Amino acid sequence: MMRSRLRLRSALSLLCCLAALLALARPAMAADDIERTAAQLRDRALAGETIAYDFVSELTTRFGPRPAGSAAEHAAADWAAARLRALGFDRVEVQRFPLVGWVRGEESVEIVGAHPQRLVAAALGGSPATPTGGIEGEVVLFDSLDALRAAPAGALEGRIALVNQRMPRIAGAYGALVPGRLFAPGEAADRGAVALLLRSIGTGTARFAHVGSTRYRDGRVPLPSFALAGADADQIERLLALGEPVRVRLHSQARHVHTHSQNVVAELRGRETPDQTIVLAAHLDSWDAGTGAIDDGAGVAVVVAAAELIARLPQRPRRSLRVVLYGAEEVAQPHTPETGGAAYLERHAAEVQDHVLAMKSDFGAGAAQALSLPPGVADSGFGRALYRVLTPMAIVPSREPPGRGGVDIAPLVEAGVPAFVLRQDGSGYFDLHHTADDTLDKIDPANLDQNVAAWAALMWLAAETGADFRALSAAQAAE
Predict the structure, then answer these.
(1) Contact indicator for 348, 374 with CB cutoff of 8 Å
(2) Which sign does the torsion angle of CA 201, 298, 86, 311 carry?
(3) Average confidence score pLDDT of the chain
(4) Is the pLDDT of residue 407 over 90?
(5) What's the pLDDT at 477?
(6) Class of 105-253 per CATH?
(7) What pLDDT score was predicted for residue 337?
(8) Please, are residues 275 and 55 in contact by the beta-carbon 8 Å criterion?
(9) Is 13 a residue whose pLDDT tops 90?
(10) Could you tell me which residues come within 8 angstroms of residue 448 by beta carbon, excluding any fewer than 6 positions away?
């Protein structure tokens, strides 16, 4: 009996080895077949697979908001890893890293005095708690960060600064206003302020505060800082225009905790050049007000669904596809500017020279409309084939360069890894971004499927053709 078992095991082992050798011996796919497979992936996703929607629905329903370092973020990472293993990914890891977490606690902002009224506001990430009884001060209005910086030292002694700059509904406006969220607390503190109010950086008219992290200085945020709903910022502005002083009381029980976050890393190992790696990125953490559906549950779902469609093919692509669901994208840290991205680079530093490209989905669930490729790639055979596949989905070449590709993959890009960027319809994104209204009902499943179609086709072509994106980019730059 023992000999029979040993012979059976030997036979099974031999069969496995033969299967592996046969897989390696398969001839490379012809260019037409590669492009045809990309088109088939595209059409399969567009036919309504709902892989992505099912994923984001379960993620946001099971775990709700997933603040960095919270129990919900940890549980969501374990769940995602289990799902990726069940989908047949070859290697799945939950890679932890230390984090100084921030917990909001109870908070309130109100006008006191002759015209008392509650305001809709939320503390900015990293903001310290107020004393138990809160902080009171007279409001001084500034229409921009530059106007605050122009105030002389001591001009805000014992008072509260309000930076009330409105965000227009145009491309690039968010990036132009984010420095106000980052630097206004420190600038206000330098001028003697006891607290800061910031008009929410968002385009919607709904009465929500748009939260986000602010900048640490010497290991701490200098003073209590709150995002104020646009309608409430307008209310203060009108009261001041009536010629009456406005006094505000702020209260916050925010606190910091030592915890951890994690990157979930899952790989479809390439059949010919497995050390050459393509990174498909999104971030798993979210802010605490909504359920993180558009930021960035949708992105997580898109990259997982695209990789799953490729995994269903009869053979793996030549190169490896690596899904990375980053942790702690939304938060600043007292001593490190980028958390999940920095942790990934540190852990995988020896492999970065073999990273072929990196790409991130983190702009909600709007339809993909344009593709930014590095210089030289768009005019290559790969680029022309890719646009032939994407054109039927009304995706056009973008004149805007990929840049750093997003916060999480920026460390990889700075280390020399080319980035691609699929640019989505963001016309309504900043109505919901970082608010309590970021929930599943804002996602259109058809638009989500369209993103999956673009990602799956793009990633298959990039992994199967063997194009050298670093060389193509370098050659164009040299010209």
Answers:
(1) no
(2) negative
(3) 92
(4) yes
(5) 56
(6) alpha beta
(7) 66
(8) no
(9) no
(10) 52, 53, 56, 298, 301, 302, 365
In this structure, are strands 319-326 and 255-268 parallel, antiparallel, or unpaired? Answer: antiparallel
Domain ranges of the chain: 29-100+257-478, 105-253
Q: How confident is the model at residue 25 (pLDDT cuts 50, 70, 90)?
A: very low
Supply 224's token pair.
């209590």
29-100+257-478 is classed CATH 3.40.630.10 = yes
